[in-house]
Amino acid sequence: MTVLYTAEETERQKRRAKWSGAAAWTALALGWLACAVLCFFVRTGNAKDMLFLIIGLATVSGWIFILLRQMVYVPAHAEAHHMAGILADENKEEFEGVLRLSPGGFQIPKSIIVKKAHIQQGEETVTLNVDASLARRLPPEGALVRVETVRKYITAFEVRHA
C-alpha cells in the first residue's frame, strides 16, 4: 500500500512553518529597525528623500512579511496540524472500488485545501476527501483501488488489478 501521511512529512511541514514564520518576522523586524536607524540620518536637505526611502523600506518589509506568512507559513502550519491529527487517529476504514476525483478543490477555513474522491463500489458510491497537495500521488482516474481512510480522508491506497 502507498501511504500518503507519514511522520516525516509532518515534521517537514512543521519545520517549514517554523522557518517561514521566523523569516517573516525577521524581515519585518529588520525593515523596521532599518527605518529607525535611517531616521537618525535625516537632515533638512535630505528629508524628502529619506521620507520616501523609509516609506518604501517599511512597505517592502511589510509585504515580505505578508507574503511569507500567507503563502508559506499558514499553508505549512495547516498541513502539519492536519497531518498530525490524521496520524494520531486510530479509527481506520477501508473501501475498494473505482476511483474518480472531482475537479477543483475547496479550502476548509483555517485548514487545508480538499478535493473530493468518489469510490464506486458496485451500485454504491462512497464520497471521501483527499488533501489536494497529496491528490497528485493518487492513481489515474478510473483505476480500481483499495483505499484506507481516517476521518473520511484517504491516507493510503493500493491499485488493484481486475
Report on this structure.
This protein is an alpha+beta fold. Helices cover 46% and strands 28% of the residues. The protein has 2 helices and 7 strands; from the N terminus they run βααββββββ. Strands 1, 2, 3, 4, 5, 6 and 7 form a 7-stranded antiparallel beta sheet that branches. The two termini are 17 Å apart. The model has no long low-confidence stretch (mean pLDDT 95).
Brief sketch in words of this structure:
The protein is α+β, with helices and mostly antiparallel strands and 162 residues long. It is built from 2 helices and 7 strands. Strands 1, 2, 3, 4, 5, 6 and 7 form a 7-stranded antiparallel beta sheet that branches.
Largest sheet: 7 strands, antiparallel
Identify the overall geometry: elongated
Discrete helix count: 2
The helical percent reads 40-55%
Beginning-to-end CA distance, first to last residue: 17 Å
Radius of gyration: 23 Å
Structural class: alpha+beta
* H/E element sequence: EHHEEEEEE
**Roughly what is the average pLDDT, rounded to an integer?**
95
The overall strand count is 7
DSSP strand content: 25-35%
Give unreliable regions as ranges: none
Any chance you could write out the topology, listing elements then pairs?
Elements: E1 2-3, H1 7-39, H2 47-88, E2 92-101, E3 106-107, E4 113-121, E5 124-131, E6 144-150, E7 153-159
Which features would summarize this protein structure in a list?
alpha+beta; 162 residues
